[in-house]
Amino acid sequence: QWLSPPEAIEHFKSQEMRFAPPQFYELCRLCNFSSLQELHKFSSERALEGCERWMPVILTASDGYMQLLPGDELYPEDPDYTGEKRITLSTDKKVEDLMKEGSIFHRIVGKNISDLAVYVNIQAKYKHRNPVMINSSNSDFKSRL
């Protein structure tokens, strides 16, 4: 069954479908486009701009986790691209407290596999579009955005 990105996210919210955090992020990014033609036009226009290699870094909190992405204020300067360093970030703080303390976000926040939210307030590189910030649950940390 084919679904639009917003429809797929609705199925995710109702727990009819499951997505890993990177797929949830990309679905939120696809929500910027109302049609396949619009997406095709955008991708054709920015195709030569370049791309960026990302390595999500997981920060485990007392009640959930964050996948930190490049540009986030908590993202390490030297992420472990090869898996040799085994960087593990953890804190006793709650996710909500980390969100209230922060101001520069590029992260996927989760309490469990079916409770995800994307928070981005940085400029996307290479003329990309930031994801539409969609929360899959009732938790809401938008007060700092």
From TrEMBL:
Q: Which UniProt keywords apply?
A: Hydrolase, Magnesium, Manganese, Metal-binding
| Recorded GO MF terms | hydrolase activity, acting on acid anhydrides, in phosphorus-containing anhydrides; metal ion binding
- Sorted alphabetically, which Gene3D superfamilies does this protein's record hold? Nucleoside Triphosphate Pyrophosphohydrolase
Family membership? Belongs to the Nudix hydrolase family.
Source domain of life: Eukaryota
Species of provenance: Nothocercus nigrocapillus
Q: Which InterPro entries match?
A: NUDT19 (IPR039121)
Name the record gives this protein: NUD19 protein
Q: List, separated by semicolons, the cofactors it needs.
A: Mn(2+); Mg(2+)
List the GO terms this entry assigns under cellular component, sorted alphabetically. Answer: mitochondrion
